[in-house]
Amino acid sequence: MDTGRFRVPAGVLDWAIALSVAALLLGTGLSGQQPAGQQQLLGAVLLAAGGLALVGRRRAPIAVLAVTALCAAGYEAAGFDTLAVSYLVAVYGAVRAGHRALTAAVSVALLLVLPLTALVLRDGPAREAFAQARNVLEIAWLIAAFAAGEALRQAERRADEAERTREETARRRADEERLHIARELHDSLTHQISIIKVQSEVAVHVARRRGEQVPETLLAIRAAGREATRELRATLEALRDDDTSPPQSLDHVPELVDRARSMGLDVELTIDGQRQDLPAAVGRTAYRIVQEALTNTARHACATTAAVRIEYRPDALAVQVDDDGKATPDDAWAPGLGLLGMRERVTALGGRLRAEPRTAHGFTVRALLPVERAS
Description:
Number of helices: 11
């Protein structure tokens, strides 16, 4: 029930329905013909119990269906000819939850039990017994409750499918736009930056062959060209990564370690904890963290060794990459695009990232990625 800005909690709504149905059953049962003595008390208790059982119709629709059916048969046997409103509501809830076949079987069984109960336990001709059973559960009301539950179930299923379709359409459009941006960047920037990089490399090479002093500005242009090329390549890779197939994961981290070793860096890989299946986004992000950290270490840190440590925890994955490079806590440094992208990935998963110089010398990257567990 949604009325503008106000939404009634499901638990409050369930209690309201249960109390209303219990009051309706008690009022209807006690206002008409009723037995005397202990049967009256027993029937009243069963009337109230059938209504109050509806509190659990969302959590346990089959159990509520069985309880309301037993209560209906019980107060009918006690002498109350009251329409089983609680059972009709339970039928609606069970069908809405998708238990159509079981609900139909229980309903057919109850339709057979009610007249047999009246024939055995109550005096009078068979016609009166069947009339009393019909007063407790009419087929028309039963069909209506079944149809209402099925109609709402189908409506909710269609709404879910429509929502999934909208999400898939939005995701597809986002992928197309991302690939379009990647193509534009590649066509407009890659060629120009490559020219700058090549020309600066050639100028530095020629100056050195002639024995001339290379201007600092030219060296700065060459370094900027190299860095721009690397960052642009990383950006294009990120834009072309559709996060669906085939994702890089922790299984590919040894390949990163081998690649770093081939570049002359002594890398030690340590994996702690009990290995377990991880969400694809977590594995992919961990891979990117190790990739970016080792790339920065090999190219910029002037390091000889690095340590990669991956720890599986009950509710998180910890990733740490340390190196023995030249960075110190006193150095002024600014994160590049690689570290910024790394932080964005970690933050998107609700995790934490620390990237900073180590106490003595070197650099450390530590990330904690939460892992949701199915309950």
